[in-house]
Amino acid sequence: MNIIVFDGVCNFCNRIVQIIIRHDPSAQIHFAAQQSEAGEKLLHQYVIRESSSSVVFITKGVVYNQSDAVIEIAKLLKGWPSIFKYTIIVPRFIRNYIYQLVAANRYRLFGKQAQCMVPKEEDKGRFL
Questions:
Q1: How high is the pLDDT of residue 98?
Q2: Residue at 56 is within a domain
Q3: Is 92 exposed, middle or buried (0-12, 13-18, 19+ CB in 10 A)?
Q4: Which end of the chain, N or C, is less surrounded by CB atoms within 10 Å?
Q5: Which helix (H) or strand (E) holds 29?
Q6: Distance (Å, rounded) from C-alpha 82 to C-alpha 72?
Q7: Could you tell me if residue 22 is inside a domain?
Q8: Between these two residues, 72 and 125, which has the higher pLDDT value?
Q9: How far, in Å, are 25, 44, 73, 92, 123 from residue 20 at the CA level?
């Protein structure tokens, strides 16, 4: 199973989740908010400590984070978001620097919610 563990109170992260849902027509990606019981269990199971500032992508027992997660997720998407898979040509330290810059400022730039988003009825099966 392909699982994205994301910051459920982050407006930017929630928007990205909606984009992924729209560009994953075969519904091969599932989601868990870091703040949810399922998200916490996954973070503990895979011994992931630095999750608060990074999206985590788990596929086939392998854990990806930061820009590597973005690239691996993009490989599964259709349409314009799939272009992010080509950022693999950029050295990891540059990709991760940009990723960390956005992650560190995401609340200030995009805001945050008091609680995790509630998925649409048709998408509920994709959330753990």
A1: 95
A2: yes
A3: middle
A4: N
A5: strand 29-33
A6: 10
A7: yes
A8: 72
A9: 9, 24, 9, 22, 12
What is residue 60's predicted lDDT score, i.e. its pLDDT?
93
Burial level of 128, CB count in 10 A (0-12/13-18/19+)? middle
Number of structural domains in the chain: 1
Looking at 1-128, list the stretches that DSSP marks H as alpha helix, in order from N- to C-terminal side.
Answer: 11-22, 37-45, 66-74, 92-110
Spatial contact of 31 and 19, defined as CB atoms under 8 Å apart: no
| Model pTM score | 0.88
- Per the domain annotation, does 124 fall within a domain? no
Q: Which domain holds residue 8?
A: 2-116
- What angle do the packed helices 11-22 and 92-110 form, to 10 degrees? 110
20 domain residue, yes or no? yes
Contacts of 4 (CB under 8 A, 6+ apart): 17, 20, 29, 30, 31, 32, 55, 56, 57, 69, 73
Q: Give the rounded percent of residues in the chain with a pLDDT score beyond 90.
A: 64
